[in-house]
Design the sequence.
């Protein structure tokens, strides 16, 4: 069987998270087959870690943590007020003496990491470990793609990491309709896009509270998650759909210590009556009314085209070949949105294997590729700030649209990447052989100019930084 190391290296960069030691040789006999085989591995893409809480458990734990901290702060303020009152009642001389003779402050241990930050760090470490350890990383890339497509923000909720595990990873190779339903009904999404507070104007709660509708989630489902912007829906469809998903909310941790933070359908908040969305009328069947709309959106041809275009743009080119988009769209329709089959179609399409590395790696991909190439473990306490500095803070998208997949969005950050590359190389450069790392990371993709630049560097540190900034390493 003939070997194709160049196609293997391209596959690891374009579809995966960059080569690890020996990876190019390992799949050189059949790069496409290796990608397809990863899709068929049992439990691929899942993170099984019993120490990571469910989203609901995280929400409840943080609520209790904040409540206890608030109570401690209030008690401390009362103690200080009481002590101050006693000092004020003392004679001025005693008061001055007491202040003068106060013992100097003694050094204390650093304060513990606040629970919300610790949950974030634990979740991000599990995610990083999964990426670094993946044999190829194709399924991890799919997880990252879908997590960005159905994005939520850690700025809005502590549940961002749990959301990715529960709504995205669970369905990453399942059907689009299942992922759509899981994502839109997840507490993290309901909080992020304000649906947890949306109330039907004519519902019992809406009449009693004189509060109303929030259209954010309905609009983003239609515009970003399914049909695509300026497609087949109207503003009236947005409003009707928003009414349909009123009542999709979460149990408040303050009143439900056992299930707070979990999804609940509250009929008192739900707009009563039938609603029409894109020409179809949906009777008021409670929570199933919204699920029926989601099911129809998942099967709509516009959704197939929108998703196919985004996949091709993410993996292959800013302006993907129309024939590739058509193949992915048709496979979406033919398989009822089977995401594994759509991924397989992406892999076997000749359009996906153009030799030009047309896409700039997003910051997270570039950082993980550097770790995989050097074989060194990553520290999320360093990596998370670095990724944020480069414009892609983990689980903190700039808008519900998520992070851009267009090259133009990342060009301005290449200068900052040099700073990160230099800092990384200064920490680890003495422990690695840059030429060996180049062979691991690029192999036959490395140009003569890149090899000459690395060989002519003044130090190992400089050589490694130059490798990480090489065009072949920056692109996929």
Sequence:
């Amino acid at each position: 069987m003939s070997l194709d190391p160049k196609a293997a290296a391209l596959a690891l960069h374009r579809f995966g998270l960059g080569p690890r030691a020996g990876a190019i040789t390992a799949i050189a006999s059949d790069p496409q087959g290796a990608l397809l085989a990863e899709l068929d591995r049992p439990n691929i893409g899942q993170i099984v870690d019993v120490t990571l809480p469910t989203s609901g458990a995280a929400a409840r734990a943080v609520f209790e943590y904040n409540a206890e901290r608030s109570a401690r702060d209030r008690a401390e303020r009362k103690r200080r007020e009481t002590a101050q009152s006693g000092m004020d009642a003392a004679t001025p001389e005693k008061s001055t003496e007491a202040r003068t003779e106060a013992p100097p402050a003694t050094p204390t241990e650093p304060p513990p990491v606040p629970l919300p930050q610790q949950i974030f760090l634990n979740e991000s470490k599990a995610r990083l470990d999964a990426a670094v350890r993946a044999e190829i990383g194709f399924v991890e890339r799919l997880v990252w793609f879908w997590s960005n497509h159905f994005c939520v923000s850690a700025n809005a909720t502590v549940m961002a990491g749990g959301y990715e595990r529960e709504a995205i990873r669970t369905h990453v190779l399942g059907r689009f309709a299942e992922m759509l339903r899981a994502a839109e009904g997840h507490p993290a999404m309901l909080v992020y896009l304000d649906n947890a507070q949306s109330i039907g104007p004519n519902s019992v709660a809406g009449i009693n509270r004189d509060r109303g509708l929030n259209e954010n989630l309905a609009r983003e489902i239609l515009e970003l998650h399914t049909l695509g912007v300026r497609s087949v829906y109207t503003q009236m469809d947005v409003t009707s759909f928003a009414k349909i998903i009123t009542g999709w909310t979460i149990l408040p941790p303050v009143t439900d210590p056992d299930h707070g933070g979990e999804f609940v359908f509250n009929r008192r908040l739900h707009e009563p009556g039938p609603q029409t969305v894109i020409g179809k009328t949906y009777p008021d069947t409670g929570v199933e009314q919204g699920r029926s709309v989601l099911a129809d959106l998942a099967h709509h041809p516009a959704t197939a085209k929108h998703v196919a275009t985004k996949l091709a743009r993410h993996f292959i080119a800013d302006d993907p070949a129309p024939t590739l988009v058509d193949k992915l769209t048709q496979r979406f329709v033919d398989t009822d949105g089977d995401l594994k089959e759509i991924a397989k179609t992406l892999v076997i399409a000749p359009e996906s294997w153009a030799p030009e590395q047309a896409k700039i790696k997003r910051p997270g991909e570039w950082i993980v590729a550097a770790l995989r190439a050097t074989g060194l473990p990553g520290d999320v306490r360093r990596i998370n700030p670095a990724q944020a500095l480069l414009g892609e803070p983990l689980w903190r998208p700039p808008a519900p649209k998520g992070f851009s997949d267009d090259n133009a969005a990342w060009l301005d950050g290449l200068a900052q990447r040099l700073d990160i590359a230099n800092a990384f190389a200064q920490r680890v450069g003495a422990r690695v052989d840059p030429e060996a790392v180049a062979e691991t990371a690029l192999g036959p993709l490395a140009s003569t100019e890149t090899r000459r630049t690395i060989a002519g560097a003044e130090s190992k540190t400089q050589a490694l930084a130059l490798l990480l900034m090489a065009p072949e390493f920056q692109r996929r």
In short: The radius of gyration is 26 Å. The longest helix spans residues 55-89.
